[in-house]
Amino acid sequence: MIPYGKQSIDEADIQAVVDALRSDFLTTGPRVAEFERRFSEAVGAKHAIAVCNATAALHLAMLVAEVRPGDRVVTSPNTFLASANAAAFAGAVPDFVDIDPVSYNLCPDALRQNWKDDTKAVVAVDYAGQAADMPALAAVARTNGAVVIEDACHAVAGQFQHEEKTWKIGGHPWADLTTFSFHPVKTMTTGEGGMLVTNNDQYAARARALRTHGMVRSSENFDGLGDPSFEERGPWYYEMQHLGYNYRITDLQCALGLSQIERLEAFLSRRRSIVAEYNAAFSDIQTIQTPRLRNPADASLTSWHLYTLQIDFDALTTTRTEFMRRLHEQGVGTQVLYIPVHLQPWYRKMFDYRVGKCPVAERFYQRALSLPLYPAMSDQDVQHVIGCVTRLSVVA
């Protein structure tokens, strides 16, 4: 079986984890700080805060941006649940505007036309690894005083062009905070894990404290409780200045991350090569729409996480379920990514969101199917997927 996504682990990765197991630190140790340093350099950000998963990173982004109960947070309906759930964790109202039909990312015009004055933050998702139109989205959000959070969980080490300049995702000026995922199906992995990056010193300091129960090593707000016996400040001393969380990542995970980051460019190159082969094979099939780029100049910069086709199942007189079943019988795993978040039962019940709120995203969902895409795919695997999909997609 060729799955739709899979990690790529080599002997160097295994040895890195073994070395960590034999060291003095298994939880929070020197490899965490080193991984943060290396990752911040890779994406061009001043600060990187590693956490246990990307959902935690998104939640911290909400908290440091001071998203409060009753605030509105707008994101894309074409994303994993966490992009919106993180706003709900903070007590905010998660809201959605439609995607554009080319990149399947949040549409700046839809954001502008549906803007509400109580919007505190915009979460722009880089679907499949393609950068959202961050300059245009930031122009709308910042004009209205909102914070911009980029959910780049699909786009580790991705880049994009704007006004003939290349910008790194995580290091450009149009996002105040950016989150990344290191889940096994993503570009690189730490098993589970995530990263929050920012150029804002205050955001970074608060995120580091909230990651570890709100604990800090300073004594700026502690008055000694009026008792001299509590005035001593020894090497053990810490304060809980905020109500934080246990969102820490381990040295074991960061050992794997440090090893994986050495192969990051190779991972990206292989993903782009597979996408190019798929596009060449499927571009002339009438029942298939291959992924498109909002800016064709980003072809060699996009960090492809997913390869999502739009398939005309009606023209093929079949259903998506049957199409997937037949591919599975031939050893090809596929996935549907994603059910529009605003149509999930909890969101419909809590906020009365209905079909028709985001029609472009809803149409996209009805025809979307993601094919296998990961660096460990062999050339034979790729040709097998192409052959199976092609045979099922040609109208008799």
Give descriptors for this structure.
Aspartate Aminotransferase, domain 1; 396 residues; 36% helix; alpha/beta; Aspartate Aminotransferase, domain 2; 15% strand; three-stranded antiparallel sheet; single chain; 2 domains
Write a short abstract of this structure.
This protein folds into two domains: 11-261, 3-Layer(aba) Sandwich (Aspartate Aminotransferase, domain 2), CATH 3.40.640.10; 264-393, Aspartate Aminotransferase, domain 1, CATH 3.90.1150.10. The protein contains 13 helices and 14 strands.
Structural summary, described in words:
There is one protein chain. The mean pLDDT is 96. It is built from 13 helices and 14 strands. It is globular, with a radius of gyration of 22 Å. It is an alpha/beta fold and 396 residues long. The chain has two domains: 11-261, Type I PLP-dependent aspartate aminotransferase-like (Major domain) (Aspartate Aminotransferase, domain 2, 3-Layer(aba) Sandwich), CATH 3.40.640.10; 264-393, Aspartate Aminotransferase, domain 1 (Alpha-Beta Complex).
The total domain count is 2
Number of distinct helices: 13
- Overall geometric form: globular
User: Rg to the nearest angstrom?
Assistant: 22 Å
SSE order: HHEHEHEHEHEEEEEHEEHHEEHHHEH
Q: Which fold does the CATH topology of the largest domain refer to?
A: Aspartate Aminotransferase, domain 2
* Major beta sheet summary: 7 strands, mixed
What is the total tally of β strands? 14
